[in-house]
Each structure stands twice: as structure tokens, then as C-alpha cells.
Amino acid sequence: MTTQDQDLRHDxxxxxxxxxxxxxxxxxxxxxxxxxxxxLRVLNFHYPSLDGKLKELRLPISSRDYLDRILAxxxxxxxxxxxxxxxxSGAGDLYxxxxxxxxxxxxxxxxxxxxxxxxxxxxxxxxxxxxxPDNMLADLSARMKQSVGLELYALTELxxxxxxERLDERFTGRSQRNYHQSAPYLHGRDxxxxxxxxxxxxxxxxxxxxxxxxxxxxxxxxxxxxDGRRVEQYEVEFDLMPIEDLACWTAVTRWLVRVIADKHGQxxxxxxxxxEDMAGSGLHVHLALYRDGSNVMLGDDGRLSPEALQLIxxxxxxxPALTGFGNTVAASYLxxxxxxxAPTRVCWAERNRTSLIRVPLGFDVGVRLDQLFNPAEDxxxxxxxxxxxxxxxxxxxxxxxxxxxxxxxxxxCVNDGLSRDDTLELARGLKxxxxxxxxxxxxxxxxSLPAHAVEAAEVLRQHRAFFEGQGFSPQLIDIVVAKxxxxxxxxxxxxxxxxxxxxxxxxxxxxMHKDVHKH
Length: 519
Known about the structure:
Layout: H1 3-9, H2 14-19, H3 28-37, E1 42-48, E2 54-60, H4 64-73, E3 75-78, H5 79-82, E4 93-105, E5 114-122, H6 133-148, E6 151-164, H7 189-203, E7 206-216, E8 230-238, E9 241-242, H8 243-263, E10 267-269, E11 283-291, E12 294-295, H9 306-326, H10 332-335, E13 348-350, E14 357-359, H11 369-373, H12 384-388, E15 392-394, H13 403-419, H14 422-429, H15 440-445, H16 453-462, H17 464-469, H18 474-486, H19 490-496, H20 501-513
Parallel strand pairs: 1-5, 13-14
Antiparallel strand pairs: 1-2, 3-4, 4-5, 6-8, 6-9, 6-10, 6-11, 7-8, 11-12, 11-15, 14-15
Helix pairs in contact: 3-4, 6-13, 7-8, 9-13, 9-14, 9-16, 16-18
């Protein structure tokens, strides 16, 4: 048995095991033959829309000819409903065309008799629709590879709160002390285990699922679904993958998490903030540059490479405008506050959670970590490249982001950083050491991120020429700006700090809880 055969045999994804080949090698005939041989009854098309949620079209598998046809050419969908304001109703027809490597067996169908596949959009001429975020991201990725010979890989840390029925008083946790908690103090453990299992079997790219810092034993709210509930924060973190694949699987995972919570009779929210002084839910994005299959984030001296610094410089240069894509609701800006491990200033640092961009700890430390505590270990140690895989972490985005659009905007900024000489010095000039909130002079010279959604709209409006030059349509920028302005949170956010504590908490919760199920 070859090494590849062994890898496939132990792959956690059922469809990979059934087809006996990796997803990038799947062809239409593989899917057709499998569906017919195993008597599958339904084919589910999934695709994103402008509200950030994954949509679904269920297609019965009634014959070989029909199955072959819909997998080959997809199906018509109403683009004006999926992307209102972006595609007019007079020219709104699109083709949803399946991407074979994004197929998976439906986790809940009886006897695994349904196949799901994520689609991309084609226009009336049979070309990638240039206005939809999936194709914007793909185009920006292709342009980067063509212009500088680099590919952008990424992973997300997807944070969320499980909203749980409060059954009794046993083993209650402590506020803000839930990081990596274990049962019996972890009350959503069964639900989280299902999330870990299902998301791993669908994507094959999960690093881990764990409880995060946030824990509220009895949440106060005017929303009856939230009031008095126990809420626990969790995180699913992926492994590095091409950024186009990440957009797909992050959107799929948000859908999977919601379905799993619903099947447990519980609820879940990705909203950026649920209560004052409690951990918010971010969508941290780790990025790495690859050339010819090799990670180039570090130079031979073990320090960040010039390309990595240009990547950082491109993100920092456009960071305030990026909040318009990554932080889209009023609650986002109640998360981006000092001393909450959420960024507020434009800077970067090594292993520092007060900075906007962080360089996390790597695993290639020049010694064998396995022998450090297992001195008898004498097996072959993994090569440094497979251990280290260095990244930088962009920390401002949160669960309100539409993943495809956010990742397209990030790719545009990285592209810009790599194409300019000045971003190298820009990055070097914005590196910080220590806690910026303990250094008043440093804090004063660093630019701030927007303080509320209305300010984010204005910053994006001022910055729109850059994004339009990168392929974002004027209509799309108008939609994003209008959504931010509709939050109408500028005066309220400014007034919150001056209100009495009880009134401030009430008003803040009204902002935070209005979007519990929108994102």
C-alpha cells in the first residue's frame, strides 16, 4: 500500500474514503457513479448570498442523465434575490455551478443517501460572474499568483456562543474563566463534540474545537431566548488551506454549527459581543504566503521574510477600511475596546494580543520537543517545514463578517502590499513591543480603528477608490456602506460611556442582542 493510499484510508472524510482519491482529483464521473452505486436520492447545492448565510437547492436524483446534467451545468438561480442591489432583477439570472472538490456526504441524511456540494456563480455568457464575492476572491487570488508568483493560504478561528438551557446549579463555571474548560464544568460538551465530529468529517481540515474564555452563568436580556440562559463560548480552528477553500468551508461550518445546535434543541450565535466586560466572538484570520508549495513567511535567518513584512504592511495600510467588511454591526465596535484582547490601534507585534496583527508562536524551535519530556523517544522527527508553517494573525474581524467578501478584501490588501516597495518600511515602523495601553506616547502616535459602524462607513467611503480598483463594484461598496450607516450607532456609542451603569448596560445589550441570529 502506497503512502497516499494509507493517507486516504485514514482520511476522516467519508467521501474521500469512498472515492479513494483526494478531493482535488474528483471528477464528475466519480460523483455520478458513487451516487448511483449507493442509491443516493438527493443532491443538495449550497452557495453564499449577500446576507452571509449559505443557501440551499435540493435536487432529486431521478436518473443518470439528470444527475449528469446538473453536475455538469449546474442550475439557474435568481441572483437578484441572492445579491439584492448588486444584480438588477432585469438581469438577475445566474448559474450555480458545483465545485466537485467541495462535495461532501450530508451528515444527517438517512443511510448517507444525500450528496451536498458547494457551488460558484457563472453569468449568462458562461463566465465567472465578476460581481459575486466568490469570483472576486478567486480573481484576486489568481492575480496574486500571476503578478508575484505567490499563493495566499489562510485559516480562520471561528468563535461563537452556545446558548444553553439552565438545568441546575451543579458545576457552574466562573465568568471569563472558561478557556479550555473540561467537563463537568463544560455544559455544552455534547453539543461541541458533535460540532467537532461533523465539521471534521465534512471539511477534513479542523485543527481543534475547544471552549473559549467567555462564560455567562445567567445572561440578562430583554430577548426571551437569551434571558437567564447559560452561554458558553467555543472556537473551531481550521488548518491552513488556499484562501478560496477557506471561504467555502468557513461558510459551510457556520451552517453546520447552527444545524447541530438546533438538533440538540439549543441555540448558537456568532454575534460579536453578548455582554459588557465579557469576551467577544472574533473571526481571527491567519495568513501565509506560499511559493511553489513552500511557506515563505520566514527567511533563512528565522525572521519574517520581506514578503511577510509586505503582507503585514498592506494589511496595516488599509486596516481601518477593512473593518467595513469584517466588523459590520454596532456590536462589533463594543468588542473592539481596550484591554479586552481585541485590537483598537493599527500596529503589529510578536505574540502580543493587544496588537491588530500578531505573529503567533511557531513550533520549529530548533530542538526536538518530543524528546524534551520523552527522553527515550528515538523515532524520526517531522521536518521543520511541516511543523512550523508560520502565519500572521489578523485579529480585528468578527462573526458579523460575510466570509467571502472579507477574505476578498484581505486578499486585495495583501496584493497591494506585495506590489509596493513602501509597505516594507511601513511594517517595520508599526511594530510594537509590550502592552500599548501601558505606553501613552506610543498609543498617541498609532492610528485608531473606527469607533463605531457609522465611522467605518465613512472610512470605507473615503477608501472606495482602492477597492474598486481591485475589482469591487461601486454597487457593492454602496451596499456595504449603507449597511454600516443603517446601524446608526455613532451617537449612542459615544453616549454609552457617560450613562449610569444600569442604563449603559441596558442600552449596550440592545445593540448587542439585536443581531443574535443575523450573523
